[in-house]
Automatic annotation (TrEMBL):
PANTHER family: GLYCOSYLTRANSFERASE WBBK-RELATED (PTHR46401). The keyword Transferase applies. It comes from Metallosphaera cuprina (strain Ar-4). Keywords: Transferase. GO terms for molecular function: glycosyltransferase activity. SUPFAM superfamilies: UDP-Glycosyltransferase/glycogen phosphorylase. This is Glycosyl transferase, group 1. The keyword Transferase applies. Residues 201-346 form the Glycosyl transferase family domain.
Length: 380
């Protein structure tokens, strides 16, 4: 089977979603005849100074047409790149991005059925869902961010609905039901939820170690991930025990960093910001923690939770739709009603057990399941 994949690799960002895209391409190329084209965003980043990084990444996968690599090396604009692409015959095309411009890119290159692989919703069908997620943090800025997100969601919704009406988007595969339900795409297109849909680094288990007397909060540091609830929860914990919390990750907004650190000082909590960590440095820190604090409002499939479990570290989190769908019944994931910071603080003093769900231990299994999802939807 000949498949076209339009893929966003992040390039200048490191997130679990971009890592998943890379791991899928590494394996799907061995299961099908695969042509990989970078996303429009990746080409834009390449032109802006990251050509060598993108070409090297694509060369490592060895699944991109050679003329595409040449184009990335020499084009001066995205328009020049798009106009130089050649149409080819594919059995289907899959877009690994939630940007509509990449669906249009797929249609430019292929006349086949086109699907999108979702890890996040491209828009929100119900503004109340967006409000619950986005209206977080200092009130004035939260209101502004919610307004901006709502406007962007409405623009994106019209773009996606236009693609569907024009027959340019035919199916969806997703890591969970959450992106499908939040966007309403489950009512508009054929879809399948891949299972298992995610995995972890195969060598992560070797970092397990004895526990030390601290906890961790690691994620993309933004209000939607519970950033401004963390000091409030930790104040309640510190009222009972002088336990340290290490905060790990990258702030998306510099103003959030300033507000968060100021709030932490004002509440006089035992908290230390370590910055962005990855690989061994991150894994060793998480593995030694008593637990991971994760008051997130915004997930489709939390890799923070999965990595914590792999490191034998229990997780205290909110009972959000994604947590219920993926981790219900998993030993080591302890959830409370969303926004209940007192109960979350109480859980920090419970005896917490962990057992890693083995179904998520192999990227090879995920790749085979992903291919099955594609075939299942195409055959409907």
């Amino acid at each position: 089977m000949n498949v076209l994949a339009i893929v966003d690799f992040g390039l200048t960002e490191r997130t679990g979603g971009y890592k998943r895209n890379f791991e899928m391409m590494r394996r799907l190329r061995n299961l099908i005849n695969l042509d990989i084209l970078p996303s429009v965003r990746n080409v834009r980043l390449a032109i802006d100074g990251n050509r060598r990084e993108l070409v090297s990444l694509l060369e490592s996968l060895n699944a991109s047409p050679s003329y595409v690599l040449d184009l990335i090396e020499r084009v001066d604009s995205v328009d020049e790149y798009l106009e130089s692409l050649r149409q080819n015959k594919y059995d289907l095309a899959v877009v690994y991005s939630n940007s509509s411009e990449n669906v249009r890119l797929a249609r430019r290159v292929s006349k086949s059925m086109i699907g999108v692989q979702l890890q996040l919703e491209p828009f929100y069908a119900n503004p109340s869902t967006l409000l619950r997620i986005k209206f977080r943090g200092p009130t004035g800025r939260a209101a502004m961010k919610f307004k901006e997100a709502l406007e962007e969601s409405r623009r994106s919704e019209e773009e996606w609905l236009s693609l569907i009406r024009g027959g340019h988007l035919n199916f969806v595969i997703s890591v969970s039901h959450v992106p499908l339900v939040n966007s309403g795409l489950d009512r508009l297109l054929d879809y399948d939820v891949t299972f298992p849909a995610n995995s972890i680094d195969e060598d992560i288990f070797k970092y397990r170690r004895e526990k030390e007397d601290y906890a961790v909060y690691f994620t993309r540091l933004m209000p939607e991930k519970g950033l401004f609830e963390v000091p409030l929860i930790w104040r309640k914990v510190n009222d009972r025990k002088d336990l340290k919390l290490y905060v790990i990750g990258q702030f998306i907004d510099p103003q959030d960093e300033e507000d968060f650190l100021r709030m932490s000082r004002r509440l006089n909590v035992n908290l230390e910001y370590l910055g962005f960590l990855e690989g061994r440095e991150l894994y060793e820190r998480v593995a030694s923690a008593l637990f991971t604090l994760y008051p997130s409002h915004y997930d489709s499939f939390s890799l923070v939770v999965l990595e914590s479990l792999a490191l034998n570290t229990p997780v205290i989190t909110y009972d959000t739709p994604a947590i219920r769908e993926i981790y219900s019944g998993v030993k080591g994931v302890y959830s409370v009603k969303e926004d209940n910071i007192q109960e979350m603080a109480n859980l920090c003093f419970k005896d917490l057990e962990v057992r890693f769900p083995e179904i998520y231990s192999s990227w090879d299994k995920v790749a085979r399941a992903e291919l099955e999802s594609m075939l299942k939807v195409v055959k409907k």
